[in-house]
Amino acid sequence: LDNSPPRGTRDLLPDQVSRREEVIAGLVGCYERFGFRRVETPAIEDIARLAGDQGGENEKLIYRVLKRGLDPVIAEATPVDELVDLGLRFDLTVPLTRFYANNQGQLPSPFRAMQIGPVWRAERPQKGRYRQFTQCDIDTIGETSVLAESELLEATLTALAAMGVRPVEVRLNDRRLLAAVAGTAGVGGEATGAYFVTLDKLDKIGWEGVKSELAGRGYGQAVAAETERIVGLLASADDPAALLDRAADLLPSLDAGVLEGLRQTAASLTRLDGESELDFSWSLDPTVVRGMGYYTGQIFEIAHAEAAGSVAGGGRYDGLVGRSLGREVPACGISIGFERVIDLAEVGRKDLGVAVLYGSGEPIEEVLAAARRLRATGRPAGLVPRRSNTGAQLGELAAEGYSAFVTVDSGSTSEERSLTPEGSS
Amino acid sequence: LDNSPPRGTRDLLPDQVSRREEVIAGLVGCYERFGFRRVETPAIEDIARLAGDQGGENEKLIYRVLKRGLDPVIAEATPVDELVDLGLRFDLTVPLTRFYANNQGQLPSPFRAMQIGPVWRAERPQKGRYRQFTQCDIDTIGETSVLAESELLEATLTALAAMGVRPVEVRLNDRRLLAAVAGTAGVGGEATGAYFVTLDKLDKIGWEGVKSELAGRGYGQAVAAETERIVGLLASADDPAALLDRAADLLPSLDAGVLEGLRQTAASLTRLDGESELDFSWSLDPTVVRGMGYYTGQIFEIAHAEAAGSVAGGGRYDGLVGRSLGREVPACGISIGFERVIDLAEVGRKDLGVAVLYGSGEPIEEVLAAARRLRATGRPAGLVPRRSNTGAQLGELAAEGYSAFVTVDSGSTSEERSLTPEGSS
To answer: A92 to chain B nearest CA, in Å?
Structure first.
C-alpha cells in the first residue's frame, strides 16, 4: 500500500511543524510591531485571474480545478479551458491585489498587509523543492514614497535577525534605472522584458553567457557591449553616492526622482545600520533584476551566505493593484523565502514536559487525574503506557522531547525525575 | 471589476484573522499541554483516496484537480475521471490515516495528533457556511482503551473553556450500543447504515418523522415501533448507571465490554467534573448517532446553548487506519467546529500600540527612527501620515485599534498620549 502524499508534496512531522510554527510566530510577532496585519484569502482563485494577471512562467504551473457538476463523460471535443473555473494560487501577490480591491473601503491607507500561507506550483519535483510550500509576504499598499521600501527592508532585516538569520546582505536597485540602462544600450518598449530576463542570469552565467544569450535573442552586438560597459562602470563605483553620480552621467534618460529615491532608501539603511544591532551590510547593485514582470520601481534582495539564492526579495509594483481596482494605487512588497529561512533559523527543540508513565492495570480516571495535577502548574504532561524495559523507554522519551517523568502506580504518583537526551537521570 | 473571491469563499480582514489566530493559539497551547502534537499534510490528496476511502456524501463535494500537461482540447467520449488525479481534502481524518500509515515508523505509540487547517467542500453556498473552512482535530492513534476517549473529551472541554466557550454539554453514546438496538429491532448487516442515517435525524424531525422515513426506506412498522420503544426506555433512565443496566436487559446481543467502556468514560467524566473548574454537564444519550460511517465504538458530541448543532464531536474509528496501513490500529478522534467556536470565543481586540503620526515634509529616516525607538520597548508602533483634520484621524486610529499616539515634527517626537475608542484622550 502506497501511502505517500502526492508526488512533489510532503507530510510534516511533529518536530518539523513545531519548528515552522515557532519561526512563523517569530516573524508574525516582529511584523506586527511594525504595524503589518495578517489577512487571508482563499487558496482557490478564479482561473482567469491567475492565468491572465501577470502569470507568465507561473501560468504553466497552475493546478487547475474542474468545474463542479460536469457530466461523467465529455460529450464532444472540448477545450480544457471550458472545463476549468478555478485554480490554486501560485503566489500571494495576485490574491493580495484582488483582496485590496475587494476590501479597500474597510482598510486604512496606507495599508500594511502580512500574509503567511501555502501556495502551489506544479513544478518538476527536485531536491528541496516542493509543489506546496509556504510564502511569507509583507506589502504596503497606498504609500507613494520610499518610506514603504525603507520600512519593508527594516522590518524584514529585524524579523530575520530575530530568527537568528544573520549576517545578511541587502542589494538594492531600481527597475527604472535598469530601463534607462536598456534605453541607453538601445533597447526599448516590448524588447525590454526579454532583455531583463537575460540580464537576471548574470549571477549564474556571467557576462559571456549574457552576451551570447542576448545575441541569440536577436539583440545586436552593440547592445550587449554597451550593457556590459554601463553596468560595469556603475558596479565599479567606490560607494553608493559615486554610483548614483555615475548613473546620472551615464544615463541621460534617467529621471532625477529615481536617483533621489535610491538616495533616500540608502540614507535609511545607513541610519538603521548605525542605530540598530542588526548584523547586515548593504549595497546599490545594478545587476539586481528580480524575476517578476510587474515591478515598477525599487527592487531588492537579501542574501545569506548559507542560502543559495536570496532569503528575501521584493520591490515596488505600482501598476498591479490598479489592474484589479481600476484606479492606480502604489504598492510595494517583500517576500521571505520561508522554506529557506526554516533551515537557517535558530530555534530550540520543543519541551514536551512530563511523561506520565502508567501501568495497564491502573484505573483510567486515576491516570488522567495524575496528569491533570501536573498540568495545573501550566506544564505539558503526556500519558505514556509503561513498557517492561523502562530504561530503553526513558531514553526514547528523552529523545522524543520529554524533559521529566513520573510513574503512576496503584493510584499514587511518584516524585518527578528529569530526563536527559542520553537516558534517564 | 468584480474582485470578490470565488463563490462560496471569503476574504478574512485583519481583525478577523487576529481573532482566529488568537483562538488557534489558545487551542494549540491547551492541546499541547495534553501531549498532542501538530502534524500537517498537503491540501491535495490522490483523488482515488478521497473518493474511495469513506467519501459517501462528501465525495460529491470534492474539488477535483486536473492532471498537468493535458492536450488543450479533450477528445469526445473521454471520462472526466481520466482527466483528474488529485483533489482538495474535504476533511482532516482521511489525510491523517494516510499520514499515520506513511510515517508510523517515526511516531510514538500511542500517537496524539493535532491538526488545524483548511478543508474544501463544494457545498451549495448558504449563510454562514463557506466552501473553504478550518477544521481543528485531535486524534489518538494506537490506544485500545477508552483512556483515549476520556482524554480527548477532557482536552476538548479544557480547550473550549480556555476560549470562554462554556457551559457546554457532553452527550456520549456507542455505535455498538446503537447496533444492538438495531439488531434487537430487527435490523442487521447492510441495512444498518441507512437506519442510522434516519435515526440521526431524530433531533430535527422527531419520532413521527423518523418512523415515517424508516417506513419509506422499506423498514417494517415493527422495526420503527421497537426502535422507539427501546430508545425511549433507555433515554428515560434516571441516571447513567440505570441506563447501562437497562441496556444490558433490553439488548441481549450487546457485548458486556461496551457497557464497561461506557462506565469507564462516565467515571472519568464524573471525576473530571468533581476535580476541575470546568463548567460542563454530561449524559449518556442513546440518540447520538454521528454522521460518518466509519465509527466503530464510543461517539460523542459537545453542545453549547448559543450554537446550532454541536461545537465538537467525534468518536472511535478502529477500522479506518487499517484500510491504509494494512493492519488494524485503534484510533479515536474529536473535531472542534472551529468556525462556530470563533463566534463564541471570548477574545479581546488586538492592541495595535502606538500610532506614529508624521508630516509629509519629515525626512524618512527620522520617521523610521522615531518608530524604532518606540518599538525598542517591545510595543508595536505603526507609521501613519498625518492628515489635516487630526481630531477625526485620532478617532479613526482609536477605532482601528491603536491605544496611543505620538507626533513626529521637525525631527522631534512628542510625548505619548493615549487614545480611547471615543477619540483622543
So the answer is: 13
Largest Cα span, chain B: 89
- Tell which residue, B95, B102, B171, B87, has the closest CA to residue B135: B95
In this structure, what C-alpha cell is assigned to residue A343? 533551515
pLDDT per position as a tens digit, B175-185 = 999 999 999 99
Q: How far is CA B127 from the centre of its chain?
A: 18
Please tell me the predicted confidence (pLDDT) of residue A177: 97
Q: Give the contacts of A58 (CB within 8 A, at least 6 positions apart).
A: A90, A91, A121
Q: Is A75 in Cβ contact with B33 (below 8 Å)?
A: no
Q: Which three cell numbers stand for residue B8?
A: 462560496
Whether the pLDDT of residue B194 is over 80: the answer is yes
Q: In chain A, which residues have their Cβ closer than 8 Å to the Cβ of B351?
A: none
A324 contacts B106? CB cut-off 8 A? no
* Torsion angle of the four alpha carbons A83, A88, A93, A99, in this order, in degrees rounded to the nearest 10: 80
Query: What three-state secondary structure class fits A41?
Result: coil
pLDDT at B425 over 50: no
β-strand partners of B169: B281, B303
Alpha-carbon dihedral A338, A344, A348, A352, rounded to 10 degrees: 50
pLDDT confidence band for B292 (50 / 70 / 90): confident
A212 alpha-carbon distance from chain centroid: 32
Nearest chain B residue to A101, by CA = B3
pTM, two decimals, is 0.94
Q: How far is CA B108 from its chain centroid?
A: 24
Instruction: Please work out, in degrees rounded to the nearest 5, the angle formed at the alpha carbon of residue A403 by the alpha carbons of A397 and A409.
Output: 70
- Phi and psi (nearest 5°) for B329? -135, 125
Q: Do A34 and B352 touch (CB under 8 A)?
A: no
What pLDDT score does B423 carry? 42
Q: CB-based contacts of B339: which residues, under 8 Å, 6+ apart?
A: B128, B130, B133, B134
Measured CA to CA, the distance from residue B304 to residue B166 in angstroms comes to 7
Query: Residue B385: its chain A contacts at CB < 8 A?
Result: 110
Single-letter residue type at B234:
L
pLDDT over 50 at A424, yes or no: no
In which band, very low, low, confident or very high, does the pLDDT at B422 lie, cut at 50, 70 and 90? low
Facing A45 at nearest CB: one of B6, B118, B270: B6
**Contact: B80, A74; criterion CB under 8 Å:** yes
pLDDT of residue A82: 95
A and B: number of Cβ contacts within 8 A: 294
How far apart are the CA of A102 and the nearest CA of chain B, in angstroms? 5
The ipTM, to two decimals, is 0.94
Q: Determine the distance in angstroms separating the CA of B185 from the nearest CA of chain A, rounded to an integer.
A: 34
Residue B341 burial (CB count, 10 A) = 24
d(C-alpha B248, C-alpha A297), whole Å? 78
